[in-house]
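Students often ask why inverse folding is considered easier than folding. One informal answer: many sequences map to the same fold, so there is more than one right answer. In these notes we will look at a single instance of the problem. The structure comes first.
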């Protein structure tokens, strides 16, 4: 669709999006249990795995200070915040 295309209401795409600003990137505060550093990371630095139970639902990232692989449990609220912030999610399925 080109910028000059119009919607059913007769408004151009360019006019419809005029004045819109890009959204600020989402960052999350995190801490490393190994080196004890605290920092902010972009949503792209996290991975969220959602399993069938609370034991198999977690998020992970790599510490930017010491390089440690960090894995922490993710409760309902953490899952909601991370998914809402654009963190890539992997749904784990059990094989019975």
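Output (designed amino acids):
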């Amino acid at each position: 669709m080109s910028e000059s295309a119009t919607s059913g209401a007769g408004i151009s795409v360019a006019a419809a999006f005029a004045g819109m600003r890009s959204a600020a990137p989402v960052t999350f505060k995190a801490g490393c249990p190994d080196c004890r550093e605290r920092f902010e990371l972009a949503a792209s630095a996290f991975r969220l795995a959602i399993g069938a139970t609370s034991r198999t639902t977690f998020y992970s990232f790599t510490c930017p200070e010491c390089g440690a692989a960090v894995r922490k449990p993710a409760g309902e609220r953490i899952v909601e915040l991370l998914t809402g912030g654009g963190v890539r999610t992997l749904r784990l399925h059990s094989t019975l």
